[in-house]
Amino acid sequence: MDQSQNPLIGVNISTGQLNGTITDINGNYRIDIAEENIILQFSYLGYKTIVLELKTIRNDLHQNIVMYQDMLQMDEVVISANFNEKSKLESSISITTLDPQVVESLSPASALEALKQVPGIYVNDANGEIGVEIQGRGLGTPYFAIQEDGLNSSISEMASSEQFSRDMFLRNDLMIQRVEAVRGGSSGITNANSPGGIFNYISKTGGEQFEFEMRNRFGIQANGKEKYNRMELLISGPIEGTDWKYAVGGHYRYDGGNRPGIFSHSKGRQIKSNVSRVFGDRLSLKLYSKYLNDRVGLNRPTFVQNWNDIRPAEGFDWQDNVILPDVNFNIGDGFNSTAEQSRLKSISTRDQQKMNELTGGIKLNYSLSENWKIKSHSRISKKNITINHLAEEGGFSTVAIDGLFSRLFSNFNWIVPTSTQNEVYRNMILGQMEFYDIQSGETVASIDNSPLLIGNSPEITLNNLPGNGDVFWGLVDNDELEITEIVQQLSLTGTLYQHQLTIGGYFHSAENQRVLNSATSFLTVEPIPRVLGTRVILEDFSDIANFVPELLPLVPYAGQRVDFANSTGLHGYNSQVNEYNNLTERVISFFANDEWRVNEFLNIDLGLRFESIKHIGESGITSESNIEERPGGADGNLLTVFDNAYNYFSGDYLPVNVNYTTFSFSLGANYKVGERSAIYARYSKSEKLLDAIYQQDMFVDNKPQTFIPRSIKQAELGYKYSTNRLGLFGLIYHSVEQNIFNQLFVVCLTCDDGFYLTDPIFNSVEYLGAELELNFRALRWWSIRSILNISGGKNRDFKIVNTGNSDGPGDDTVVDLSGEPVAGSTASRFDLSPIDITSRFYILKNRGELIVNYRRFAERFANSQQAFTLPSFGIFKFGFSYRLSHFLKTSFNINNVFNEIGILRFNGYNAVAGFPENVSAEFIQNNPETWFKVQRSLPRAYYFTVHYQL
Question: Which candidate, 190, 195, 193, 199, places its Cα nearest to that of 713?
Answer without folding.
Answer: 195
